[in-house]
Queue: 3 jobs
Job 1
Amino acid sequence: MARRNMLTLIVIVVLFAFAVCALVFPMFGRGEMRLGLDLQGGIHMVYKADLSQIEPGEEANIMDGVVAVLNNRINPLGVTEPVIQKQGQDRILVELPGVSITDKEKERLSRVALLKFGELAADDEEARWENERGRWKPATAVIDGQEKELTSAYFKENTYVDRDNLGRIELIFEWDEEGSKLSEEITGRLIKQPLGIFEGDESLRGEDGRPIAPIVQSVIIDRGVITGLSYNEADSISKQLNAGRLPVPLEILYDQTVSPILGADFIDMSVRAGVIGIILVMLFMIIYYRLPGVLATLALIFYGTLVLALFKLIPVTLTLAGLGGFILSVGMAVDANVLIFERMKEEFRTGRALGSAIEAGFNRAWTAIRDSNVTTFIVCGILYWLGSSIVASAPVMGFALTLFIGVAVSMFTAIVVTRTLLRLFVGTPLAQRTSLFSVYIGRK
Amino acid sequence: MLDIIGKRFWFFLISGGVILISIISLVTFGLKYGIEFSSGSMMTVNFEQEVGQAELEQGLANLGYTNAIIQRTGAGDFLIRTRELTGEDKTVLQDGLTAKYGRLTEAEFYSVSPMVAEETAQNAAIAVAVAAIGILLYVTWAFHRMPKPFHYGTCAIIALIHDALIAVGVFSILGGILDWEINLMFITGVLAVIGYSVNNTVVVFDRIRENLRMGVSPDFEVVVNNSLVETLGRSLNTSLTTLFVVLALLFFVGATILNFAVVLLIGVIAGTFSSVCIAPPLLVVWEKGEWGRFVQRLPLLAAKAKGR
């Protein structure tokens, strides 16, 4: 018996050492805890592709195309682990952890064609855009019997940024075949008139803040130049243009953007909450249950280390709610210990010797521990399903997963770790002092 | 020995009162749904300059957002909730605010379309229903060896509904007074509370089962009371340790998971009360066929309470 306990203790110590190593050093290729968007900042978006104009049977191909273009557009942003995934029929999930991009950059990701060209509208004509340079309508031309708008969809994917002789920034592009025809037609018509450039519903503005609307000097057939942008802006637009055009329009269904600074605050706060909560629980256990409380505290330290190591190795994506689940599980983790200790005290009072009181305590408490945790597991399972079925999944899934792991490990630590520690204590002189177990024999 | 069961009618009265208040609040205030369920946009911004809440409300109204809900969350920090914003709406809104109140930094932006909101609400409702059924099945199974499994199952479920109702009721009051909203974390919290509450009840019932088998006393009331007193230490201690961590969450994290922490706090308190003072006494009342007696005693109790 004693030998078996020592063996169990050795296994526990080795497991603990392993967990500590896993937390401190990279292991199995996992260097850091994986943090959710709300903790490290970043973007979580869900797009819906408009497939209404697509022929039946072609949807899957179109969606693959959308994912490819989004990939190309996101790559230049320098995100370390972007997630770009199809979800269901017509949705695309985009997760960009740790980035902080401007709203403009975000908008650009989902635009079919980045830039649109416009000409001044007559007073009686409907305008699509308005700015300090006037009222604008899309610049169109009829090609092969169809009226088409002039947009950057007709750019070749080889735009680049350069400087002209005077050192001004230029964004240089080439038209593709259809674009050449359109451009020839339109610029031929608009000589000495301005050609407005727009992004979505907004004017493309230069470094000086004014709308960019160059006066057409000559017919533009194969290549053109946009001047006036700042270098960064021109570079960003050029990269997005080269990423290709989306085959269908995208609509944002869900958008969660968190600044990385906020995420860092949350981590600090949850760590503080966790540490304080755990210390309170430990103090309570020691004051109320004395020696068994101390052992439960040791078991709790083991528990916390093991759970965190599991989070890192599995890996569980930690969100704020997930941390909440973990902290909550600490409070619940001692429940199994409390059940056992209370039971042990009762057995003690009926006059049993310490050793048999411990065994009886564990054995009798087991059904209650098992039965009572089942409900938590049921709830975790349902929450996990809920999380996997909705778009705003991260907090719910995080909570379900961490609580589940927490409660499962807590059953193990209470039953194996605390019991082994207690058994090892039975043989020592300390065990003779019943006051250490906060039980006074003869008092009931 | 402490007589808990003897005071059962007092406990029922307390719970009945709290539930009545919850229901009244639910009827009058209803619940306020967060954007996850009702769609819309929400942003957390920080102004470098001092801005008053009323001032900001006026500013937003001038920009066309008359129904915007604004909450101050810290020095210069505001949470602004509006209808669903497109990227361009947002740029215009933030430019408008910057022009008026100086530089602002956006800490968080959250936008949910009606389609997603509808799905979320629907699936959350399914989750709550499935959880209730799952727990019902489990409780029936857990007590199938008991003499009257249906009694035990029903009492555990009543305790569960009791806790959920109180949590929802308190949020309805908080919604009416402080504009608190029901969001996904709230639902998560309620489900966690339900699990926790049943967990506590199961431990007490487990002891009743054991004491019945051992034939502690022929009187059911005595058996239940003994079981309650024996498990009281455990019930209270577990609740205390859970309360410690919940309070730590509440005070040190707050803000984003405030809803969640508050639901847990209410749930832990209500859950502990119901597993000690509601579910087991209900068993006794049912066993003794006292339902009628309770109703008869109500006016008497009221008179007694008045007389004090």
Note: The CA atoms of residues 2 and 424 of chain A lie 7 Å apart.
Job 2
Amino acid sequence: MVMMSGGVDSSVAAAMLQEQGHDVTGVTLKLWGGVSDSGCCSVSDVEDARRVAAQLGIPHYVFNFSDDFDANVVAPYVEAYAAGTTPNPCVECNRTMKFGRLFARAMQLGYDAVATGHHARVVAAPAGLAIGRGADRAKDQSYVLYMLGAAELACTLLPVGEITKAEVRARAAALDLRTAAKAESMDVCFITRGGRETFLGDRIARRPGAIVDRAGGVVGTHDGIDAFTIGQRRGLAVAVGERQYVVDIDAGSGDITIGPRADLLRDSLTMRDVTWNLAPPAGAVEVQARAHGEPASALVDGCTVRFVEPHVRVAPGQVVAFYAGDVLLGGGIAT
Amino acid sequence: MRPEAVEAMRPFFADSFANPSGSHAASRVAKTALEEAREVVAAACGAEPHEIVFTAGGSEADNLAVKGAAWAARDRDGRDGIVTTAIEHKAVLGACGRLEREGFRVVRVAAQVSGVLDLDALGAALDERTAVVSVMLVNNETGTVQPLAEVAALVRERAPGAVLHTDAVQAPQWLDLSVHASAADLVAISGHKFGGPKGAGALVVRGDTVLVPLVEGGGHERDRRAGTQNVAGAVGFATALRVTDERRADEVARIRQLRDRLEAGLARSVPRFVANGDHDRRVAGVIHAAFPGVEAEALLVALDQRDVYAASGSACSSGSIDPSHVLLGMGMDRDRALSSVRFSLGYASTDADVDLALSVVPEAVEMLRTASTS
């Protein structure tokens, strides 16, 4: 059962599996019940997925998981921003929807495996199956799949992880798929044109407060902590000599602390919900704290990551993934 | 489609494509065909030919009826009340929602667990300011027949002057409209529900019922629906309706036998099978049932894979399933609504179809129940 979002990657994933001889069924998830012009679950994307499935001659279904999506992805997203943290809704969607409810339904219906269009690989490491980086390093999405355990990996296929994005588009064009030249979705699928602040502003009372410098001096005000993320530079309406970054968010007082980049550097970070798909190694691992961030060398000790070199502060709520080379070992969520 | 309807339509795609409103010989051929079709539809509905307005289907007919009658009443004497049921088709509910946003008072009467609307609640909702009452004849999900004659009696007594509309889109296969829809001022029907073409429907507009048109223009359909008529569609629609009328008694008896065999078989072989709606109030071709512990969405996939095509809830524009407003409107809880599936039988259904369903449904339900508890 291939999850077809209506984009080019999952279209080609379905085509590749069919070429490999699998008996393929396409499914598109209806996740967001609200208004969305651009989201991955809008009607035109469902239509694209349906048309590609028809072109490939495979069955296609739409599953309506919008209630669960609201409870498991959207509500925690809003709560996280209200608490001054930075959620990763795509990770929660993969965890609870794609590899949660959809995975369970596919197994229930007797499918052998589920597949997606993620640029990542399932690799056989000596200690067992693991997620590996996609062949196209610039498009690698292994980070957002860090939560997949042995049970899911044994029944997961990620065919486009073996090829580059350029090859994906070339294959789509060669097959004359209508999604071949379709633009990539970049934003959170349920956020509409109004942007994040409008979306959050409709759902939570905004919490205005002071913008303070490292010494505690008030240098400005802001309309709501939900507009800020640790490490953010944009949107700071203060004129200070050196470039300023958000270095702390105090959800209690509503204060945003800013400072120069040096103030963001940390020797360590702490995490919650740490999982290891492969056994933790004795020495250093590479730690990646953003979807397309550069990995940094660090030691992981329980729920603490100790960086070899100081590392910019990771916003609480973000996934921290551990790698050995191209193999994902595990991860946690920054606190 | 019924082969007779296909054959009747064929000449109007190629040989006779003139505009029925023209004045030359070719137009007269088209006009004659259109008016003959109108006579056939009128006869089937117990109406006069001039009381038939051809539309592009049931949703348009429902919208023309509800909005057109409400606007006309408001213009005439300021009436602002709309009374309908919670189990109507979305075409009626959507039109009522639009009128509500325009300032009309809309009451949506609930149904009982039998699937039949609550007549006491309907009676209580009627008053002298009621402009339109819209109650369907046969529900499109449960197949339950609504007591239209009793509704009409209540309307005439408590809301004299109100227009009674019935969405009879699901009815022609099962009921003689000249009898069962005779109490309504407005009756909506749609071709593809009885073997006619999609995109062809009609609204019966009885007597002096006044409608404000949705589409204005060249005065077609006696100023009630502008636009060059779909001659092929009207001819196919009328032919299918005539054939349906002629064969109704035989077809309904045969389909009822098939349906009852399927329903009894499912009740016997599927543990915890629960039929929705009162069996004796349902038309002959519908089984609507809950399969507790099974998600309808998954069951439909499992059945599709085994060549049994069932349905659940109502399809939204993206093809996904929302919990049925009809079942919720009967007071059913959400879990039961989401585990409910409809099996529909029609004139084309066979004994072999029933055999297939009986061999496949119990196994699919069992598979899903086992997997979801393991």
Note: The two ends of chain A are 35 Å apart (CA to CA).
Job 3
Amino acid sequence: MITASLRKSYGEALVELGSENNDIVVLEADLGKSTMSCFFQNKYPERYFQMGIAEQNMASTSAGLALAGKIPFYSSFAVFATGRAYDQIRSSIAIPSLNVNICGSSAGLSDFGDGKTHQSIDDIALMRVIPNMTVLSPVDALETGKMVRAMAEKNAPSYIRINRADLPVITEDDNEPYKIGQMKSFRKGSDITVFASGIMVHESLKAADQMGREGVSVEVVNVSTIKPLDTEALKNFVSGKIGVVTAEEHSIFGGLGSAVLEALSESPLPLVKIGIQDQFGTSSACYEDLLEAYHLTSEYIVSGIKKLLK
Amino acid sequence: MEKKVFNKKEIMLKAWAIRSDILAMLPPGKIGHLGGSSSIADIIACLYFHHMNINQNKDRDRLLLSKGHAVLAQYAALVELGIIDREELKTLKTFGSVLQGHPDMERTPGIEAVTGSLGQGLSVGLGLSLGLNLNKSTARVYVICGDGELSEGQIWEAAMAASAFKTDNLTAIIDLNGIQATGSTEEIFPVRKIAEKWKAFGWHVITHNGHDVEEIHEALCESGEIRGKPSVLIARTVKGKGFSFAENKAAFHNGSLTEEQYQIALEDLENSRKEIEKL
């Protein structure tokens, strides 16, 4: 299976958008070589603003650029892009619902070496609770690129969380634009529905393979728009099933699992949340070890499914 | 744009009208930010009634109140300009009112951003300046900050950034009234050497009397001519200026007037109007 970089896709999508629309501007807090916003810097230096290591100012400055009719994208690591600038996002950007687009890069545990200060376990929760905010979590590089375009076109604030690792490409390389709110099944199944986002979609597909070999039919749905959540689509995906699993590389509090639980609060179906328990990350020599240590691999999704079958 | 002749008496009468409207928003018993609104009344008058291009097009000059709680002064000016209906004054901060407690561009005509969570307005102004430059607009951006607000670290992030980007279409104005919510700035959190700090951050600094409209006018003219760097006006002001019982009193940062104080305020206004008329 082909893997590709979501970060590169983000940077390339910015350049493509920038070539079509002079109003696209990009801001960065000295991590452009990691977030890949540097691609835009190289192509359109006059529309690229190096804001230094000052994320709060970057967020509010983006609001001002939007007020001048620009379409800003600002990026940093997910922890700093969101939590460090939380009130700036809330007050300067989200209250007036400005078209400011926030990229939280190296999200989740994917910045494996840097440890808990740099690993975002809470960014979805933080962004999801803000009125007017759209929250996106792409599953692969292709979806990332399409999302960037959808963010620019939506005249309201958006947040995209991007994994540092290259991930398998599983969406279609076609001209179909990303529709904010879309929720697509990557594997049909009749017993259990797994709602997953980001890297956990890939782990969920592996878990579904294994369960298939054991005679259990598991549906895997890519919930790449976490907010707004399409509640009706969600209900349709669980109709006739015996249980629901959510899988995310984020705290089990406030993220995808919580959002699905809220949406299905009237459903009698049992639900298991796979995610990071109420704890911070830690440094590791490789990403895979962290996913294992934090119970985010397919085997834990399998265990979750089996709990529902008991 | 054709150069207007600065008419001191006319601007002083506008500042008077702003103070009068602020009082109209705060009848006895109604809590509101009298002190910090009246300390910027003269600056607001110079901006809206002489310096700013207020045509409602994309090249209009923008005024942001980073110290958003003083928005009463901006509402008053917008009423005097006919942009906000005078009838709205008495609805300040009531449910459904056009006049929110802090600046809300979604609700209020003439308000350019959402500010009031202190420390953010200068950054928003910087973004506007950068965007207007990309648009090849001739518009200027003015941002009024409080001196208490200078405790916010983000102000200094914005100060460094504006200097780095050489945004000479940006003018910050510090309302140096020396009093914040619960006491004097010196007691609560002394920032000190404010002019030196802004200079060290790369700004063109102009210190002046923030109640003398001629000095304000000259400072604004000077800031408009500076190229290659942003300008900051450090305006020495008196909190509660124009209302004798409220001057230099932290209690009127966000307080209410008694019936008696309200009557005194009306008398103060009457007396100051007579003084201006003599000019």
Note: Chain A touches chain B through 30 residues (CB under 8 Å).
